[in-house]
Design goal:
alpha/beta, TIM Barrel
Length: 291
Amino acid sequence: MPAPTITLNNGAKIPALGMGTVFLDAGGDIQKTIDAAVEAGYRLFDCAAFYGNEEAIGTALKNNGIPREELFISTKLKNGHHRFDDACRECEKSMRRLGVDYLDMYLIHFPCPEHGLYTEAWKALEHLHKEGLVRTIGVSNFHKAHLERILDVCEIVPAINQLEFHPYLTIEPLREFMKKHGIVTEAWFPLGGPAVRLDGKDNPDKEALFGEPVLTELAEKYNKTVAQIILRWETQLGIIPVPKASSPKHIIENISIFDFEMTPDELEAISGLNKNRRFGPSGDECNEYWD
Ligand SMILES: NC(=O)c1ccc[n+]([C@@H]2O[C@H](COP(=O)([O-])OP(=O)(O)OC[C@H]3O[C@@H](n4cnc5c(N)ncnc54)[C@H](OP(=O)(O)O)[C@@H]3O)[C@@H](O)[C@H]2O)c1
């Protein structure tokens, strides 16, 4: 059963939950993962040129046979390509790798403020939208100051800002600002990120998060897992989580969250876990990925 949809500030409908794809092909069978995801009801696939797997995902979706119009394919402009012409070329390269003739959504991956070119990149995204190549445009990892600069120059207000978000990082002031402008939050690291860090060590913060009594007690009450409680909290806040799962059990579990609803007090109790704890890079960082 596909996830329900929500309506963006441009009238487009986006699934309320999607599938993260970072490292999806690392040691796994990407076709099996994509087939399991489509079968479970995922329609939004959150890709990025930076992940290096657009071609594999595009091929797997094509092989799966699901009609293109049922999918919501989103990808991101890699750092280092914020000049207008370059950004347009990069978008077309992503489309070629994904094997599509339009994108449902295209995001600027990071503002890279040290380089000061993200407003130029935004103009390129507006152009791509006007050309009909991209249906919805947005940003990722943009803080208030970066969004303000975009809002000063834009013809089209970003529909989405994809940000690190989980119970330990609820970024309320930024979300409040975005709400005023009709910008929806999409959550990366919606489950606190990978259980094992890139250096091969366990992520102790994730273990702590999954052991939080507020979450374990709600999991017991609703007969759900802690991951399902976190994802349902996010969707009830109007946030679109894009959890990545390679295990078939997790793939099914993560989308099986639309059959229960928590109370406002319960949502608030989860939001109360906030520690302003960032597990990944902020929007002022990541300039180092600049090619
Ligand atoms: N815009 C950005 O800058 C940015 C940055 C980072 C990530 N992202 C996007 O956000 C997506 C999600 O981030 P992420 O994959 O790093 O972190 P995540 O979704 O928070 O966590 C993924 C980890 O959680 C595990 N997991 C999944 N479902 C689970 C469940 N039901 N119970 C217990 N564990 C579960 C996965 O294990 P298994 O794989 O073993 O199932 C994997 O180890 C990425 O794939 C990417 O698309 C965007």
